[in-house]
Amino acid sequence: MTVKELAQKLSFKELSISDADREVAGGYCGDLLSWVMGRAKEGDAWITIMSNINVIAVATLADVSCVVFAEDVMPDDDMIKVAAEKGVNLLVSPFGAFETANKISGIINE
Q1: Which of 4, 30, 38, 99 might form a disulfide with 95, Cβ 3.0–4.6 angstroms?
Q2: Total of domains in the chain
Q3: What is the model's pTM?
Q4: What are the average pLDDT values for consecutive 10-residue runs of the chain, which has 110 residues?
Q5: Are residues 14 and 7 in contact, defined by beta-carbon separation less than 8 angstroms?
Q6: What range does the domain containing 37 cover?
Q7: Are 104 and 6 in contact (CB under 8 A)?
């Protein structure tokens, strides 16, 4: 499933879509950036509530397919701009992290 398909099927807001055709291979939930760097896998949809600019650096290092902000967390305009420059896909989910993860898991494993 692609990032674009994921966003459409789950009605997530698209904040920055640099690579709509990027495959979502799995998911990772976490807010401690050092843990995400060491544990998220390439192609994961990273679910977080962190809206710190360092999220973009970690997303790039971990090579996740997208960052999904749970609970309608909205990063600021500067973060969205940097994400677009770095090619990081950003989505927003209205659901909590657990429910967002369940929804993503349910559709990527169809």
Answers
A1: 99
A2: 1
A3: 0.96
A4: 97 97 97 96 98 97 98 97 98 98 91
A5: yes
A6: 3-108
A7: yes
